[in-house]
Amino acid sequence: MKHIDKKTEQKLYWLFIPMALVVVTLILDLWFGVDLNFLAWYKPALIGSVLIVFTGYSIAAIKQKCWGYLAFLLLLLTVLLLNMSNALINLFFDPNQ
């Protein structure tokens, strides 16, 4: 399977900064008790920051014709979004119990 070249991949690491900021904010709110009302807006912020990373890596994979890498990214994104929406849990367990 063809991979993204190292120079492009090093540039793509910068896309993880928004996700890191969301995680740091979550840690500050839950562990250290800083009142940020984070639980009201963490889910859209986390999904948005994850989509930034996946969009960047997908564009790089398309430009460099890494089709196996792109397919793996799309599969990973699908499982991640299903997991965050609790669709997989609701599939196996009755939510009314």
Order of helices and strands: HHHHH
* Biggest sheet details: none
Distance between the termini: 45 Å
| Secondary structure tally, helices | 5
Return the structural class.
mainly alpha
Radius of gyration equals 17 Å
Number of strands: 0
Unreliable residue stretches: none
* Form type: flat
- Helix content, binned percent: 55-70%
Strand content range: under 5%
Return the average pLDDT rounded to an integer.
Answer: 86
Structure description:
The protein is mainly α and 97 residues long. The protein is built from 5 helices and no strands. The chain has helices at 6-12, 17-30, 42-63, 67-84, 87-92. Helix 2 packs antiparallel against helix 3 and helix 3 (42-63) runs antiparallel to helix 4 (67-84). The longest helix has 22 residues, at 42-63. The radius of gyration is 17 Å and the shape is flat. It starts with 5 loop residues before the first helix and ends in a 5-residue tail after the last helix.
What keyword list fits this structure?
single chain; about 70% helix; mainly alpha; about 100 residues
Give a summary of the structure in a few sentences.
This protein is mainly α. The chain has helices spanning 6-12, 17-30, 42-63, 67-84, 87-92.
Q: How is the secondary structure organized here?
A:
Blueprint: H1 6-12, H2 17-30, H3 42-63, H4 67-84, H5 87-92
